[in-house]
Amino acid sequence: MPGRLDGKVALVSGSGRGIGRQIALKLASEGARVVVNDLDDGPGAETVAEIKALGAEAVACNGDVTKEGFAERFVQAGIDTWGGLDIIVNNAGYTWDNVIQKMSDEQWYAILDVHLTAPFRIMRAASRFIREAARQEASEGREVFRKVVNISSTSGVFGNAGQANYSTAKAGIQGLTRAMAKEWGRYKVNVNAVAFGLIMTRLTEAPAHGGATIDISGREIPVGVRPEVLQTAEKLIPLGRGGRPEEAAGSVYLFCIPESNYVTGQTLVVAGGRP
């Protein structure tokens, strides 16, 4: 049976691990051809291998999404490999938390760059192909929808203490989403956002149970949530637990299928019922 996304070309940033990997696998399982990205070559190659094991197609375009020239290289990877571009998922990112009096300019700009500037650049790099393809399709009397899904957070919807940088960036991506939904509507591009609550990945797992650091441009940044904070957070979730990466991926998938063709400029909160 054909997949819901057969023949579609999808770019998924930050898809070497966690939620991003599950998004890439979900799209591929429905027939999409996926350009995978991770900061490091190893995880990116692992996701490509998993997709190929499903019988689907994938290539890697690894590297830092915040670097000059990355966005153009990422977009071109899909166009050069498969001749098209149908889905963009701006997922790459991390947290670097602190209270405001202890937050450096470096922390502030690093988080805005990865969560807001990088998606802006990727969409800008894709704009020429999208405009030209949409005009050609319209001249042929065809209505072809494309999809952009930007990953936000409940920190961007409601704010979160100790995350002035992250909350601001994730609120900003919602503004970019709404603006581009209006700007690209004429090209039949649906632009939506998904705001995740507590999803259990290496960025949220308790340090006492294998919490890690991540290497960003040579700097080791601690990740993870203290066990007591994690337990309290889960108790406040009506569904009783944090989400799984594959559940998070499912919500992104909803914005990539034809049933969402008349939905644009929206933010879907995926938090297990927690406001």
Automatic annotation (TrEMBL):
Residues 8-202 form the Ketoreductase domain. Pfam families: adh_short (PF00106). InterPro entries: KR_dom, NAD(P)-bd_dom_sf, Sc_DH/Rdtase_CS, SDR, SDR_fam. Belongs to the short-chain dehydrogenases/reductases (SDR) family. This is 3-oxoacyl-ACP reductase. It comes from Paracraurococcus ruber.
